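User: Here's a protein and a ligand (flavin-adenine dinucleotide). What would the complex look like?
Assistant: Let me lay out the input and then the predicted complex.
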Amino acid sequence: MNDATASSPDPFDADVIVVGLGAWGAQALWRLAERGRRVIGIERFGIGHGMGSTHGATRLFRIACMEHPGLAPIATRARDLWYDLGERTGQTLLRQTGGIMIGPRDGHVVAGTLRAVEEAGVEATVLEHDELVARFPQYAGFGADDIGVWDPAAGISYPEKGVRAAVDLARSLGAEVLTDTRVTAIDPISGGVEVTAGGRVLRAARVVVALGAWTPQFVDHPLVARRTPLFWFEGDEAEATAPGGDFDLAAFPVFIRQLPDGTTLWGHGADRTDGDGYAVKIGLEDSNGAFEDTEADTVDRYIHPSSDYGMLSAAVARAFPGLDPTPAKAIPCMVTNSPDRQFVIGHPAGDPRIVVAGGDSGHGFKHAPAIGELLAQLATDEQPFTDIEFMNPDRDYDGTSWLDETEHVAVAS
Ligand SMILES: Cc1cc2nc3c(=O)[nH]c(=O)nc-3n(C[C@H](O)[C@H](O)[C@H](O)COP(=O)(O)OP(=O)(O)OC[C@H]3O[C@@H](n4cnc5c(N)ncnc54)[C@H](O)[C@@H]3O)c2cc1C
């Protein structure tokens, strides 16, 4: 503890320091700046970089979140804030195309989504088997019991653009931003915190710790980083992914699909209509055992064909025969799992000076501006806009979770 500055009239450089300007920290910076708070954001790399968890052009957006019914209000708030941020920075940050969750009626994807829909009271439509097969001709290998749940609010959000937009807007509202600056220590002091970064010591009343896969370096919590690469695919024929093609985003919207053998895929179609064009994106759900725990600083940044996409290519060949099953592009990425695969948001050990935001568990980007809002509320002693007890850092991990009840294990989607 260091009380040396406590008696000076203004011992603090800021009201709040946000450490880590990735998906969640960038949005917290914006929401704090929006409140007129003196806020400093510190990022180890550049803004919108590709070293953590928030890169690769797109992320699935859903409101009917199978991961927990408490996420629906957060996704709903995020939707509004994505539009607000997009309008104020002159770009598209959310594109709601609708999305389809597919699998056997009692499988974790369909049953989990339906349970979340029911408990959260959000809109969704069941597509019975014949309607599903007729509507999605690109899909092969449907099981006899497969049905679909259409989430009309689902769509695409944009990681690098979303981070840059939030930081740009925060700056224009007065936030100070330090890039290429590594935080090396976060220490509680009397009435606040001291953050050591790039040879400087900064003090603030509160700190938001939003360090993604690096969180375990600073917060004592059972979070584990997991190497989880991203993959893109092209059609067998070039027209397949062109506008109007079977695998264009309009015909092949956001999906999560549990195959009859239990393998679960997620992804969305290609978009070649503007400068941000991308191919078809498809990934394997973490529960398929394709990924390994890692340390953020030493994560393997190479792609290994057999171990990284052997299982995925085989599943793509079975599920979508119009695609070339060898990825056209692949990049490494990381998720950070909490033991129950729910986010970790709140004051660790009840310390009001520290707000932690970690454990994204592979489904956190869509919610980012609403998480940023919650972090700003926690850092300014406002009432959170929704119940966040299920994300409490001090919750008891008794080996069960809402996800287990739906036989579901973390979706990177
Ligand atoms: C393959 C894959 C697919 C996914 N699909 C989806 C999806 O479809 N939909 C969805 O909603 N979510 C998805 N996610 C999850 C989503 O991407 C993450 O939830 C989100 O990006 C996590 O953001 P974050 O802020 O926790 O971490 P990050 O964005 O990594 O931010 C942490 C920041 O802390 C910085 N930092 C680290 N150490 C220091 C230090 N010492 N000093 C200063 N700064 C530091 C890092 O540089 C980084 O910028 C996916 C994730 C993966 C990997």
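Summary: Confidence is low (pLDDT under 50) at residues 1-6.
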